[in-house]
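ASSEMBLY PREDICTION REQUEST
Request ID: AP-0331
Submitted by: J.K., bench scientist
Number of chains: two
Total residues: 224
Priority: normal
Notes: Please return the full assembly, not individual chains.
Input sequences:
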Amino acid sequence: GENVEQHPSTLSVQEGDSAVIKCTYSDSASNYFPWYKQELGKGPQLIIDIRSNVGEKKDQRIAVTLNKTAKHFSLHITETQPEDSAVYFCAATSGGYQKVTFGTGTKLQVIP
Amino acid sequence: EAGVAQSPRYKIIEKRQSVAFWCNPISGHATLYWYQQILGQGPKLLIQFQNNGVVDDSQLPKDRFSAERLKGVDSTLKIQPAKLEDSAVYLCASSHRNTEAFFGQGTRLTVV
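STATUS: Completed
Returned structure:
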């Protein structure tokens, strides 16, 4: 089955700096890669996603890149703000029924 | 649109007792997922339904966990008997035709 690895597990940045979280996946058939933000006591919420036919996608301060050959994808957050502090999960989706496999999470702390 | 509803939000039981969680997905979403999220880890898929049929339950501990989705809408997840290691947040999610999964707030289970 699919295996998703995520690094780093924790990340502290100064407000205004950029943050980068990296993930690798094992199943070359995976075709959809969502990123979720989880705040304390809440369920994960989608912040951006990318499909396998696209190399990069940007939404305001958030961008995701995908390298299908190397089977890795990354989340980039620019101009970080304290409200960006949360746990971020990458995920890979594969199979006819779109099974979603999550990474282990990155706890991002933005220091004011 | 209304989100994924889960109940209860919190549950404390003694080991060897039974417990049930309820999920009402977003209207029209054919796919329903149950995830187990242990503190500090990413969500782990327990079972995935497509309408009222199971498409993946490979990581469901079937000796103690069971789930059903009657009529292809609401779903219940049951644990009987519970063990200490079942303490976790149980997340329900739903999706529509290969799009993002929307998560509920989860049920935090503590087994003592």
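REVIEWER COMMENTS: Chain B touches chain A at residues 4, 31, 33, 35, 40-45, 48, 50, 55-56, 58, 91, 93, 95, 98, 100-106 (CB under 8 Å).
SIGN-OFF: pending second reviewer
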